[in-house]
Design a protein that fits this description.
The chain has helices at residues 7-15, 32-43, 72-81, 92-95, 108-111, 115-118, 122-137, 149-161, 191-196, 199-217, 223-237, and strands at residues 2-4, 21-26, 47-52, 86-88, 141-145, 167-171, 242-250, 264-272, 275-282. By secondary structure, the protein is of the alpha/beta class. It binds pantoate.
Length: 285
C-alpha cells in the first residue's frame, strides 16, 4: 500500500495502476461502514484508492471541523487490511487553491432540503471537494454509503452533470447489532446517549411497518400522521432529543410526498446531546 500526501505523488502512483480503479473518498475516523465501502469498491475494480481528508468547506462555522476525530494510524491499518493500493492523505493546500475562481453551487431543490436546510453550504462543499478528488484520482467507479443518502443523491448528479464518466456505487448502511447506523460521530456519544440512540432506528422501523400496513390495506393515509408517530417515539425514548427532521420524501427526487408510495423514503436527523445523527430507510418496495 502506497501512502501519498501530495497531488503530484498521487498522480505518479495513479499512473502506474493498470486496469479499473475504484475510489472511496473519506474523512477518516474509519469504521466498519468504511471497510464495507472499500470491500465493495475493491470487488468492482482491479485497484482501490482511498482518500482521507477532513474537508473544511463542508463544515459550517459552528460545526465540529476542529474536533472531528483524526485517527490516521488506525485508518491506515484499516486501509491496509482491506487491501487499498493507494491512500491519499492531502493537506488542504494540496486540494484548494488559495483563491479559487470556481465554486460549485448545488441546486437548492436538492441541497436546500433535509440536511441542507440545517447545514447551509454543506453540499456545495461536498460537491467541490469530490469534484476535485475525482479529477485527481480519475477512478472508474466510486463508492458512497446510503447512510448519507442526500449526499449520494447530490454526488450522483455531480457525476452526471459534469460528465465524469464515473460509476457511482451506492452501498447499504452498516448498523450496530442494536440498529444504530455506523458513523464516525457515534464516538462523541456518552454511554447514556449511546444506549438511547438506537431509538431512532426503532422509530424508523415502526414507521416502516405502519407504511407496509397502509399500503397493504390500500388506505390513503397522509404521511404527516406516520411521521408524527415516529417523532413521538424518539422524543419519548431519547431524553432531550432534538429532531432536525423526520420526514418522508421521494427516494429519487427528495421531494415531499403526500401519501406513502413505492418510492417513499424516510429521512431522520436527530441531535442526541450535542451529536447530530442521521439515518434513512426505504419504506416502499
Ligand atoms: O462522506 C464523507 O465522508 C464526506 O462527505 C466525503 C464524501 C468524503 C467528502 O468530504
Amino acid at each position: 500500500m502506497q501512502i501519498v500526501r501530495t497531488a503530484a505523488e498521487l498522480r505518479a502512483a495513479r499512473a502506474a495502476l493498470a486496469g479499473r480503479v475504484g475510489f472511496v473518498p473519506t474523512m477518516g475516523a474509519l469504521h466498519a461502514g468504511h471497510a464495507r465501502l472499500m470491500e465493495v469498491a475493491k470487488k468492482k475494480a482491479d485497484h482501490l484508492i482511498v482518500s482521507i481528508f477532513v474537508n473544511p468547506t463542508q463544515f459550517g462555522p459552528n460545526e465540529d471541523f476542529t474536533k472531528y476525530p483524526r485517527t490516521e494510524e488506525a485508518d491506515l491499518a484499516l486501509c491496509e487490511a482491506t487491501g487499498a493500493d493507494i491512500v491519499f492523505l492531502p493537506k488542504a493546500t494540496e486540494i484548494y487553491r488559495a483563491e479559487p475562481l470556481i465554486r460549485l453551487a448545488v441546486d437548492p431543490k436538492i441541497a436546500g432540503v433535509l440536511c441542507g436546510a440545517h447545514r447551509p453550504g454543506h453540499f456545495d462543499g461536498v460537491a467541490q471537494v469530490v469534484a476535485i478528488l475525482f479529477n485527481l484520482v480519475r477512478p472508474h467507479s466510486a463508492c458512497f454509503g446510503e447512510k448519507d443518502y442526500q449526499q449520494l443523491a447530490v454526488l450522483r448528479r455531480l457525476a452526471d452533470d459534469l460528465h465524469f464518466g464515473i460509476d457511482i456505487i451506492p452501498v447499504p448502511t452498516v448498523r450496530e447489532p442494536d440498529g444504530l447506523a455506523l458513523s464516525s460521530r457515534n464516538r462523541y456519544l456518552s454511554p447514556e446517549e449511546r444506549a438511547a440512540a438506537p431509538a431512532i432506528y426503532r422509530a424508523m422501523l415502526q414507521c416502516k411497518s405502519r407504511a407496509d400496513q397502509i399500503r397493504f390495506d390500500r388506505i390513503a393515509q397522509p404521511v404527516a400522521k406516520v411521521e408524527e408517530e415516529g417523532r413521538a417515539l424518539i422524543l419519548k425514548e431519547i431524553p432531550g432529543a432534538q429532531i432536525d427532521y423526520f420526514e418522508i420524501r421521494h427516494t429519487d427526487t427528495l421531494e415531499p410526498t403526500q401519501f406513502i408510495m413505492n418510492k417513499s423514503r424516510l429521512f431522520a436527523a436527530v441531535r442526541v446531546g450535542t451529536t447530530r445523527l442521521i439515518d434513512n430507510l426505504l419504506l416502499g418496495g
